[in-house]
Amino acid sequence: MDEIIRLIGLTKSYNGNHNAVDNVTLTLNSGRLIGLLGPNGSGKTTLIKMIAGILVPTSGSILVDGQPVGPRTKAIVSYLPDNTYLNDWMRVSEIINYFSDFYADFDVQRAYGMLAQLAINPDDKLKSMSKGTREKVQLILVMSRHARLYLLDEPIAAVDPAARDYILSTIISNVDEGSGVLLSTHLIGDIEHFLNEAVFIQNGRIALYDSVNNIRQREGKSVDQLFREVYRCW
Amino acid sequence: MLVKLIKHEFYATWKVMLIFETVLLCLGVAGFLLMGALVGTVTGSNRPNNDSVISMLVTSSITWFVVYALSLFAVSIGTLVFLTVRYYRNLYANEGFLTFTLPVETRDILHAKMIVGYIWQISTFLLIGFSIFLTLSGVYWNLPMSARNEVTKELFDIFRDFREFPLPLFILHCLIIPLHSLMTIYFCISVGQLWYKHKIGGAVICYFALRFINKIIGSGVSIHNMITAINFEGNMSINRIFTRSFGFSLIYECVWLIAFYITIRYVNDHQINLG
Lengths: 234, 275
Prior knowledge:
The structure holds two protein chains of two kinds. Chain A is an alpha/beta fold. Helices cover 35% and strands 28% of the residues of chain A. In chain B, α1 (2-43) runs antiparallel to α2, α2 (51-92) crosses α6 and α4 (106-141) crosses α6 (167-192). The A-B interface holds A 14-15, 49, 52-56, 70-72, 74-75, 77, 79, 81, 83-87, 98, 101-103 and B 1, 4, 7-8, 12, 94-98, 100-105, 196, 270-274.
């Protein structure tokens, strides 16, 4: 397995006093589905944004597939943010053209196939769609790339259980062998069975990083149970 | 990748800009027809005898000119506002999550915005000129022959007086103005990103601060130019004033443009903070 992400002393502070991510050093390998687990405000989204290149670290460095964050890493990273980032005046087919123009690894056939499965008309404009459908379109675009690394920020938050199943199956069935997935969530129970490794993050620091099997054996409980104990609010 | 960015930038903006450009053309054609008809009626051989009708026609002409001037102003402001909103949304609002994760250099993103924005600004600028030219043509060609000859003679006299007018400097100045106004807005929006919260408020403060500085420097330089343009005999040379003021404006705007460009590049490369 190749190393896909290396974080060295990574820190991001807002307003100079609050460290959203605090001196994180971590190496993640490709070919794994890794859960980035932590409660709201623990620094998951900040960490993912820095790896994606839309947030500049205060200090430390990030290497993706051995390269510092830049156009070359963006060409191999497929990023799903926790909000909608598509131009809502565009038709789905226009957005597909946009993606295929910029990303050499974008699979147009796969995108249209997934749209057909969900009965989404490629000629529809995004602004005419419901929030849930727009999120599905975004997921389809992100998962239609043959990327080396998928960064998925809270893909199953705020969706109903049926949509959650669809999203998870789409992710699992479309990730190429050898690609890495870093998926942030606080809904552990739904994804635990799919995960190879788990990274627990708390107050911007890595609290635990191990394979899911090791965690279960060592702790004698599921990752979900451990998460509830580690992050209990009382 | 720059070519692709430019292509998609055009694609994202052409529909709205086409509406603006069509409005400008329609205003020009309407001005040509309406002003021509009004001037022809008031000054022609079939001129109405009734003074109240003539006064009504003159009032209509003035009203049209006011509406026309306001419309031109609205379209030029509308173009800038549209390009501003596009820049903000596409870079620093939700769409920025996609724009800044494209496998392109951040400088190319800025260059595409600058090139496309400038082309639209210049085309609006040219169409405003063409629209005014059409309207004035409507007036000119509907004047009686004697009046037309008089106007032509006056125009030649004006051109003769301004034969030393620094035309190349003036054209260069006209070409820089749209880029300067565009980059001023882009700069303010980008600087607004340095605020942790209230990013739009930060951009607005930056804009007014910049305007204030420009006004002070511009006024000082204008007064200096006026004073130094008076020659030893105490005569004021208009052409010398123009040459100095266009020359200064060119250098001044170019210095600002370089500062704007470097700052935007710095913000996009080192301070990007999409939240």
